[in-house]
Write a structure and sequence with these properties.
- The structure is a single chain.
- The protein is an alpha/beta fold.
- Helices cover about 40% and strands about 20% of the residues.
- It has one domain (about 15-169): Alpha/beta knot (3-Layer(aba) Sandwich).
- The protein contains 5 helices and 5 strands.
- It has a 5-stranded parallel beta sheet with strand order 2-1-4-3-5.
- Helix 3 (about 95-110) packs across helix 5 (about 145-160).
């Protein structure tokens, strides 16, 4: 990847990125991996996890009803006036440089960003409608616990790219 100079933001700009994800009681390795990358982010870029309880999966349960239930809890967790990004297969894929550009746009805006990660059946329609952007992390299917670690690492990588730190290479 070719290194490019990005104009650093003013020192007083900061963004809080809220990772709103369905599921709790993650394995220890997920928590450790997630925490490793969140602690590396500078004070100007905070990553905050909001775990939303998954709907109970029972035989003969309606998938749409479960998604709506999870979606309602996710929408309630979005901070007021946040820029919402839904992780969805219909979204755009971003390279590291493009994610760094997104971060560069989010940081000076001064508002919170909410990343929505749905449960096993995806995001509720209400979450997709609320989204200001849609991001396809990958066309591959990942286990939901692993998505948290990948997101934290990719945000750190984009932040280091943005800050011209050598980690991103």
């Amino acid at each position: 990847m070719q290194r490019r100079r990005v104009k650093p933001p003013p020192p007083d700009t900061a963004v809080r990125i809220h990772l709103i994800a369905v599921g709790n009681k993650m394995p220890k390795w997920v928590e450790q991996g997630y925490q490793e990358y969140t602690k590396r982010l500078g004070a100007e870029c905070r990553l905050v996890l909001h775990e939303v309880a998954a709907a109970k999966r029972v035989k003969n349960a309606l998938v749409e009803r479960m998604k709506e239930e999870e979606g309602g809890r996710m929408l309630a967790a979005i901070p007021a006036r946040a820029h919402v990004v839904a992780l969805d297969l219909s979204g755009k894929t971003w390279s590291t440089a493009q994610l760094a550009d997104q971060l560069a746009n989010w940081m000076p805006a001064g508002s919170d960003v909410a990343l929505l990660v749905g449960g096993p059946d995806g995001l509720a329609d209400a979450c997709l409608q609320r989204a200001d952007q849609r991001w396809c992390l990958s066309p591959l299917t990942f286990p939901h616990p692993l998505v948290r670690v990948i997101l934290a690492e990719q945000l750190y990588r984009a932040w280091s790219f943005y800050r011209n730190h050598p980690y991103h290479r």
